[in-house]
Specification:
5 helices, 2 domains, 8% strand, two-stranded antiparallel ribbon, mainly alpha, 72% helix, 122 residues, Multidrug-efflux Transporter Regulator, Chain: A, Domain 2
Length: 122
């Protein structure tokens, strides 16, 4: 599959596909067509991109952490217990982020309330 087809089917831009490849998350094979060189992607790249996006969205993982995780899973698929431990660790990270965001929310709410009170008093 050419990059345009990968981009169309995944919703990524061509630059996004190239970025994933630069990070080593996906790979392609160079293919000559006359004087041009095209990158040919295996259809399995579609599934890999879906996994990457799921890891970003649902596990909150940055791209730099996804590469080693994909490689690790490909080399040695985790046991159910290892998966549970990993997900529990991610849950801790997510809960910490939520707690931090709640602090920000509280701070902003207090500022807004203070400014509104000061504005009403003026």
């Amino acid at each position: 599959m050419l990059i345009g087809e990968i981009a169309k089917r995944t919703g990524l831009s061509k630059d996004g596909v190239r970025h994933y490849e630069e990070l080593g998350l996906i790979s392609s094979i160079p293919r000559s067509a006359g004087s041009k060189i095209y990158r040919d992607y295996d259809p399995s790249v579609l599934e890999t991109i879906e996994l990457i996006r799921g890891a970003q969205r649902f596990l909150g993982l940055p791209l730099k952490e996804i590469g080693p995780l994909l490689k690790s899973i490909a080399d040695t698929p985790p046991t159910k217990q290892q998966t549970v431990v990993f997900l529990e660790q991610r849950l801790i990270v997510v809960r910490e982020k939520i707690a931090n965001l709640r602090e920000v929310e509280d701070h902003l709410s207090e500022k807004i309330a203070r400014y509104k009170a000061e504005g009403a008093a003026s």
